Amino acid sequence: QAQLVESGGGLVQAGDSLRISCAASGMSASRYAMGWFRQAPGKERERVGTINESGSIIAVVDSVKGRFTISRDNFKNMVYLQMNSLKPEDTAVYYCAARVSSRSTYHVWGQGTQVIVSS
Prior knowledge:
The protein has 119 residues and is mainly beta. 0% of the residues lie in helices and 52% in strands. The protein has no helices and 11 strands.
């Protein structure tokens, strides 16, 4: 069964950096575009960014451009979100998800990891 598990979240201070990870199992992540999403309390989920199968970043939301970057290690079946210069407004539960590149719907989702940025 395909599964994604995020890890690495936690409590950090504004200006800090944090890398969160997404481990894929029961599936070959290299076959899928991978997305990072986040949902802050009381807000709708938003897509942070997407990386394609070969490691090219397809899109990153404007609010994190220049601060966040997505990478992947297909040999390890891992996807990463490096977050720098964190702000309190980055506080959210972060999710990774997988989709077939030719489709717009993400069909596998992780359970999320909480990131809290204190001011």
